[in-house]
Amino acid sequence: MNFWQVLATTTVITTLSTNLVQGAEMIATQTDETIGIGLKVYQVQLIDDNGQTVDTIRAVSGRAGKQTPSHKAGSQTPLPFGIYQFSMPGSVSHPGGEFGGAWSPIIPTFETGRSGIGLHYDPSAFKNNGQAGTAGCLATPTIEEREIMTQFIRAYKPTQITVRDSSLPNLPNRKPLSLPFTESL
């Protein structure tokens, strides 16, 4: 009996489930669109517990002229692509200055030299004042988008945010992915 016959006659169907998201989440996709003095726009989907997009806002990350994500601490580049967890789901504090009155800390679920990352508002996004963009956080460019983000975080208490490149295919993030495969006994 050859390998394929053994495989066909002694199979076990196994299902892989990759439904890792429990609760609301956010997905930020870096685009090629720019605002202000060259800040790349992230389209941020605000997704409820049922996997439905409640709203979409814009965000920026990193400083103008430094728009390639990096794992290097102090680089002032956009935050690295990956999954981040909210350290305090549902919490938004109100620091002033360049945090623009809103701060929700997030923690990378992967190894990186970056720390002190969060979501906030960038009051300088459209200004040429040396403060446009962020030192690596994800920030809304308008007060209106800050308010939408803040209300979503408080109401839905998202547990994670995925930051991704637009060149990656959209993967199902809410429904279980079932992949039957066979293995010989």
UniProtKB/TrEMBL annotation:
Keyword Transferase attributed: yes
GO biological process assignments: cell wall organization; peptidoglycan biosynthetic process; regulation of cell shape
UniProt pathway annotation: Cell wall biogenesis; peptidoglycan biosynthesis
Record carries keyword Transferase: yes
Active site positions: 120, 137
Matches recorded under PROSITE patterns: LD_TPASE
GO terms assigned for molecular function: transferase activity
Protein keywords: Cell shape, Cell wall biogenesis/degradation, Peptidoglycan synthesis, Transferase
Protein name in UniProt: L,D-transpeptidase
